[in-house]
């Protein structure tokens, strides 16, 4: 463990608190994980080390990192001061890494899981961080060949950051339902809309929906317990779907599947960003926020995994059941005033069909998994995504009621961190 434990638990907690005390509100960063593919077969293929070497000396060098297996690469926007800055960077980062990959004879895919490549054939990259993960988790980490989108949002104040995480728990299922993109695994239609989430959150320790802590002191008490008992040696071993990040003064939302369409990745980041800021503002204004029982959130969590955007979610304030699309539209309505202030409102959208729904529809039409995955790897943006402000294209309409929401383009703020 010596290579991995650079700082003691006490130091990690102390520095984390200090960083939040001086943090800037509502910066952001977006991390996207991509599958590295053989362009002929579209199967996973080792290529990270080659991509990393090729990125040296380029603009991508500090923004391209490894993420567990050699057939995966993560691309980061880096810290952005505004959503507009981030919105301009997502397409640039995507274009840059795709060009780099093509030059090496690879192509890239962005769904939550690969439809057929066996986990047994994937090699864990040789870094101190992932050597430790391999030693600690064994089968749990071997099996986790999944791809997601993480959004970091800068939050000032350690107590405030923890309380924002507490409130975000409630809305993790909405974010997951919107982002679901992984219905296929191991050559089969799993019947799930996000098999990635089932694999990751049900396998890893300290994962999924976290507890409510109410403030930094209670959070620190628990994290110190983990350090003192040798349960963790580094703070990112808390793999919750939303967490305070101790290396960056951000709240990190980790629930979303990877997105085949660039505009949908941007729109998803816009909602995660706007929601985080809206909650922070509500706390500042003394509004009462919902903190449902863990078991109630888990019911919605399962619904999002199983049926995604096509299903229903429970209103955890009233216990009424309504379509997932309606729940997300209501959430967009709630965050819109803050989103308009922060420049992210024009990017908020609910698609006619998200990535999982589109893939399932093609499967039901008789398309093969190979055909369907090829369509995700080489997608057409226009049919499902609206243009950036001032652009041209088709707006995305909601399904399930008469309202529609506006859609657009790339994304967001703060710091970056691994998991």
Summarize the structure.
Helix content is 41%, strand content 13%.
Please tell me about this protein's structure.
The chain has 419 residues and is α+β, with helices and mostly antiparallel strands. It has one domain: Creatine Kinase, Chain A, domain 2 (2-Layer Sandwich), CATH 3.30.590.20. The chain is 41% helix and 13% strand. Strands 1, 2, 3, 4, 5, 10 and 11 form a 7-stranded antiparallel sheet that branches. The protein has a two-stranded antiparallel sheet with strand order 6-7. A two-stranded parallel sheet has the order 8-9. A hairpin with a 6-residue loop joins strand 2 and strand 3. The radius of gyration is 20 Å and the shape is globular.
Number of domains: 1
Distance between the termini: 16 Å
CATH class: Alpha Beta
Give the helix tally.
14
- Arithmetic mean pLDDT: 90
* CATH architecture annotation name: 2-Layer Sandwich
Which segments are poorly predicted (pLDDT under 50) over 5 or more consecutive residues?
1-5, 382-419
Give a topology summary.
Elements: H1 9-21, E1 28-37, H2 48-55, E2 64-65, E3 72-76, H3 83-103, E4 107-109, H4 128-137, H5 139-142, E5 148-154, H6 158-168, H7 172-179, E6 184-185, E7 188-189, H8 195-203, E8 207-208, H9 216-228, E9 239-240, E10 242-245, E11 250-257, H10 262-284, H11 294-307, E12 312-314, E13 321-323, H12 324-342, H13 355-364, H14 369-377
Parallel strand pairs: 8-9
Antiparallel strand pairs: 1-3, 1-4, 1-5, 2-3, 5-11, 6-7, 10-11, 12-13
Helix pairs in contact: 1-9, 3-10, 6-10, 7-11, 7-12, 10-12, 13-14
